[in-house]
Amino acid sequence: MRRPIVAGNWKMNKTAQEAVALVVELKELVSDVKDVEIVLCPPFTALEAVSRCIEGSDICLGAQDMFWEKSGPYTGEVSAEMLLTLGCKYVILGHSERRTHFGETNQTVNRKVKTALESGLVPIVCVGERLEERRSGDAKKVVEDQVTRAFDGVPLGGAERAVVAYEPVWAIGTGLTATPDQAQEVHSHIRQILAELYNAEVAEGIRIQYGGSIKPENARDLFAQQDIDGGLVGGASLKAESFAGIIRGAQL
Predict the structure, then answer these.
(1) DSSP string of the chain, one letter each residue
(2) What is the pLDDT of residue 171?
């Protein structure tokens, strides 16, 4: 059985001090949760502080992005090794906001996925369609293209360690949420794609998160779906109580 994974993507929010205060509160609220993997993805500037704060707990650390080169003249970028030295286990790659605002493409996502896996990081590979693509009936086609290109050239052993996050762009930060049936339909499709790229056994083992306006009120219904293995949570992860409620919604 796949262990649920709930990750909080704090985006460009929280100073190091604010991040620590949030983690201290969250740890108390989820101290008894053992059957859900919890991941915190603060801004780069708060990674070290959060890493120290979660030491000794079951909470994992993740970053919001990384570059594919090990070092060099890449102003503003960070490498996989830099993240590993801070205690990161996970890294979010290909988020729609990176694609929309910073020119991320399927090709660059693929390069980052390969580098992350080669370095020992677990990539959370984000895919999802825009509203016009869903309305035109192209949602599955768009997601299939993103998944296929993200995993192009990724060996079976690497794919087994990856996490996929289905985040319909139209549901991110809008208050709109895919219904459990809508989300399940795409999650099932993603698993079928992975089975075609690798095999059914590998596809069955890969965890696929849902992201897009998850709240404590809808989390349990979403996570109860057969192919939804947790969530990549944005705004609701910025408050300990709401994030804890979502985490509890993923308990087996």
Answers:
(1) -PPPEEEEE--S---HHHHHHHHHHHHHHTTT--SSEEEEE--GGGHHHHHHHTTTSS-EEEES---SSSSSS-TT---HHHHHHTT--EEEES-HHHHHHH---HHHHHHHHHHHHHHT-EEEEEE---HHHHHTT-HHHHHHHHHHHHTTT--HHHHTT-EEEE--GGGSSSS----HHHHHHHHHHHHHHHHHHS-HHHHHHSEEEE-SS--HHHHHHHHTSTT--EEEESGGGGSHHHHHHHHHHT--
(2) 82
CB count within 10 Å of CB 79 equals 18
CATH number at residue 201: 3.20.20.70
Contacts of 248 (CB under 8 A, 6+ apart): 30, 33, 216
Full-model pTM: 0.96
Which residue range is the domain that position 61 belongs to?
5-249
User: Which residues are catalytically annotated?
Assistant: 95, 167
Looking at the 3D structure of the chain, how many domains does it have?
Answer: 1
CA 146, 147, 150 angle in degrees (round to 5)?
A: 80
d(CA 165, CA 172): 12
Q: What is the pLDDT of residue 10?
A: 98
What average pLDDT does this structure show over 135-143?
92
**Does 168 score more than 80 pLDDT?**
yes
In angstroms, the CA 210 to CA 190 distance is 12
